[in-house]
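Inputs:
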Amino acid sequence: MKRLRIFLWGLVGLALFLFGLFAYQLTQPKDEFVESAMIGQPIPAFDLRPAIADRPGLSSADLADGNAKLVNIFASWCVPCRAEAPHLETLRMSGAEIVGIAIRDREEDVNRFLAVYGNPFTRIGADDISEVQLSLGSSGVPETFVVDGNGVITYQHIGDIRADDVAMILEKLREAGA
Amino acid sequence: MKRLIALLALVLAAPLAAQDSLPPAPYAYNQLEDPELERKAHDLMLTLRCLKCQSQSIADSDAPMAGDMRHQVRTRLAAGETPDQIRTWMIERYGNYVSYEPRVTATTWPLFVIPFVLLLIAGLIIRGRLTRKAPAQEGAE
């Protein structure tokens, strides 16, 4: 009889534990971001044609030229990229060198986007079939990678850069040697 | 009035429909010429997760990015890479998350082991009951 009682209380305990576990997991915020596994890795070799006429294209060699940079993955059709534009401008004014990769974009659309929201980029490569984006382990637009002077990825920022991210991004860039 | 609303709705719907402005990658929707290679490509696509619509494989998804991933799979297979090499390439970039096929890893092994442990426990309990019952009946009043 006593053994049965202990067994039943054990069951109650187990049920409580499970419900507690479910309650805990259900109240945790869901992280939908897929992080790149390429952080700490050298940027894979690529060579993108210029996305617009008045900026050169982008290749992996440009990223290993000794200066740490921000690589911003954007698109004219991407709405959060518009919200991010003024903060990229702030980063540029603070001395960050920013290069862009335009995903699945037409030249006239990129031109129109940059005319409205500003052009903080020194180079813009056109990635028409997301090939470079996939090789970096990026899963959406916008995303920003910090790349050191040797072309090694040191940090990935997923989503648009907000006003309160600017200082942190500058710090990451400094850590990368800019 | 109704017509005007319908017209307005059509006009406003256009930019929503256009997620990006470029046509899909060449091998996003076109099959490989070699049926054997295409079969391999399709099998592999079923095991890769679309990163945009995370509960679909890239074979099932119409997201532009899934199309670009299918293009990678098909062109790499056509260039002579094996399905395993392509899977590894994807996992090197996106981690195990991109795998749409359960893999035994440091975090997932309990999922594969627990069913067997439970079966073993159940088996032991049943055996205990069956062997206890016979002498108990003999010793009953």
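Chain A has two domains: 1-31, 47-175. Flag for discussion at group meeting.
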